[in-house]
Amino acid sequence: MGRKQVLAVVHTVTYGKRLLDVLSLLEADFRLQVVFTAPPHAFGDDVPAYLASLGSAVVPWEQATRMTFDLALAMGPRGMEYIKAPLFTLPHGANYLKRVTEGAHAGVAGLRRQDLMPGGRPPAAVGVPHHSELRELARSCPEALPLAHVIGDPAHDRIMASLPLRAAYRRALGLADGQKLVVSVSTWGAHSSFGRFDTLLPRLIGELPVASYRTALLVHPNVWAGHGAYQVRSWLARCEQRGIGVVPPEADWRSILVAADWIIGDHGSVTLYGTLTGAPILLTTSPEREINPSSPAAALAAHAPTLSPTHPLVEQLDYVAQEYRQEEYAPIRARITSEPGRFNRNTRKLMYKLLEMGQPAHEPLAIPLPAPLPLAAWAPGRGEASA
After folding, report:
1. For 302-322, how does the pLDDT look when each residue is reduced to its tens digit (9 = 90+)?
2. Are 260 and 161 in contact (CB under 8 A)?
3. Architecture of 4-155+338-355 per CATH?
4. Tens-place pLDDT, residues 26-70
5. pLDDT band at 387 (very low <50, low <70, confident <90, very high)
6. At what angle do helices 13-23 and 154-162 cross, to 10 degrees?
């Protein structure tokens, strides 16, 4: 039986995890064969092990560039000019939050010409989460505008579908009755929360009473890839003694975010997704030069309270819990996607159009997230943490 071949291009673990939501829309279709490949990337050292954990069929990059596929999916531009297939590109995070302010390639990361047309080659389709991105696209790369499709956001839809399971996620994490969960979130880069962890971590360890509070750390996979898992766990080794869960890069962070009572974060995608959960948010940093000024991250930075270095952490958590109003974040949440709940439908329709095939005859529903492992399983030095 002849099958059409779909190539999933995984530059980093972040891209790979995001691609799984897209690839799930092709499940149970015996007409298709999905294979993976991993191009060279500065943050790609962990990708081979990640793909092996999936049990996926992997084509070496050098071989993949000599083959022809019926569709290629990618969330980054690197090397895509060498792939022989209709290319469907998607963002690897929430919206387009970061900008480059210096050099010849300044602009909104992900919407610049070199992001969308690697090697000058146009893709078959560009997926964006919100209609507002079309304005930036018309300015930065008008050639790609006719190829753009507003498809929505997969993480948004999975989180929203999972909100009713919050109590179940909290039980799975091992939270006792009355315990509160603080989730500390970091993107990557010098201006991220992790860039300041030498000041934030002692506060998480020393100021939160262990009987009343549990803490989970969600650190961007690029931090793990850039420094190495050994070094990251070495820096965070003290967390084990305090029962803090250091969530490994391959784990799904979204159910943990749904379970949070507070989110302490920065200007990255995960903090922005936190606005969907109803948890109060404290910002550790919001570097203006790195944030796309028209993005919801800029709106969040202008609205959310900022962590104070001089006031006790518990008092600040109590303050934001009292002052936080979920409805105040509604305009920010609405900027994540203009197609809420419709990512699966829009994306599957587009992929099968590119494949020149009819869609399966069932509704592609957003499935609630699986329950997380207990926080204790992710303490540094435990065997489960490296599994």
Report:
1. 989 999 999 999 999 999 998
2. no
3. 3-Layer(aba) Sandwich (3.40)
4. 999 999 999 999 999 999 999 999 999 999 999 999 999 999 999
5. very low
6. 70
Q: ∠ CA(282), CA(285), CA(286), 5° rounding? A: 105
CB atoms within 10 A of CB 25: 20
The domain spans of the chain are 4-155+338-355, 163-336+372-386
Q: How do strand 245-247 and strand 262-265 relate by DSSP bridges? A: unpaired
Largest CA distance in the chain: 67
Q: Please state which CATH number belongs to domain 163-336+372-386.
A: 3.40.50.2000
- Taking CA atoms, 293 is separated from 17, 72, 286, in Å, by 27, 31, 11
Distance CA 132, CA 150 (A): 9
pLDDT digits 0-9 by tens, 205-219: 889 998 899 999 999
297 φ, ψ (degrees, to nearest 5): -65, -35
- For residue 199, pLDDT over 80 is answered with yes
**In this structure, are residues 92 and 10 in contact, taking their beta carbons and an 8 Å threshold?**
no
Helix axes of 13-23 and 343-355: crossing angle, nearest 10 degrees: 80
Distance from C-alpha of 34 to C-alpha of 70, rounded to nearest angstrom: 10
Same fold across 4-155+338-355 and 163-336+372-386: yes
d(CA 109, CA 319): 35
CB 246 within 8 A of CB 214: no
pLDDT top residue among 78 and 237: 78
